[in-house]
Structure formats: C-alpha cells, structure tokens
Amino acid sequence: MASAPAQQPTLTVEQARVVLSEVIQAFSVPENAARMEEARESACNDMGKMLQLVLPVATQIQQEVIKAYGFNNEGEGVLKFARLVKMYETQDPEIAAMSVKLKSLLLPPLSTPPIGSGIPTS
Predict the structure, then answer these.
(1) CA-to-CA distance for 89 and 105, rounded, in angstroms?
(2) Biological process (GO) annotations?
C-alpha cells in the first residue's frame, strides 16, 4: 500500500517572517559563514562552480532551519519554502525585503563589464 504524500507545511505571513528571519540569521552563524566563504572561494566566481559548491551548502543551512517548521529535510523542502516566500513577497514588504537579503547571501553580485570594454567594433 502506498503511503500518503506528506502534507505540505503551511505558514501564515507572520510565521513566514519568523522562519525567513531565522534562515537569514543562520547564515551569520560563524560555522555557516565559514562554510559559505570556503565554498565561494573554491568556486572562484565561476557560476557553474557556484551552483556545484555554494548552492548545496546554502541549501543545507536553510534545511537545518526550515525542518523545524515541517518542511522536509531534502532539497524539495527548500524549494517549497522558496515558493511560499515568493507567494508572500507580493503581500508583505517585510518578507519581500528579507527575500532580497537572502538572495544576496546566496548569489554572487552580478558583475557587468564596463561599457566600452567589450568586443571591438572595428
């Protein structure tokens, strides 16, 4: 007999704020900050390596926090949490601001080449 699918956790806006705040704080814990820094240094600002090295560490850090709120302890839980946050971003400016902060912790700043330093036109 197949087991029933796990119920997806639901959070109110207030609960989502709390969880998101805890996730952001988790990245400030010295051990986690060191893990992220090591992964970033190993990735050398290469986007492919960032996905291979930084994203898994960031996912683990988030999982440690969100599992206490009913999200599964696999990558799927982080995706469900991200979808929930995305849904609340439009309803709550505080969640929107925290979401931007979280993304800045996860993704490297995009560097664009200075204007005029691209391919020669002649």
Answers:
(1) 17
(2) post-embryonic development
- Condensed to tens digits (0 to 9), the pLDDT of residues 45-59 reads 788 888 899 999 999
Q: Which domain holds residue 81?
A: 13-106
- Give the total number of structural domains in the chain: 1
Q: Enter the pTM of the model.
A: 0.79
Q: Is residue 29 part of a domain?
A: yes
Q: Which amino acid is at 70?
A: G
In a domain, 114, yes or no: no
The residue type of 6 is A
Alpha helices (H) along the chain:
13-26, 30-43, 47-49, 55-66, 75-89, 93-106
How far apart, in whole angstroms, are the C-alpha atoms of residue 11 and residue 62?
16
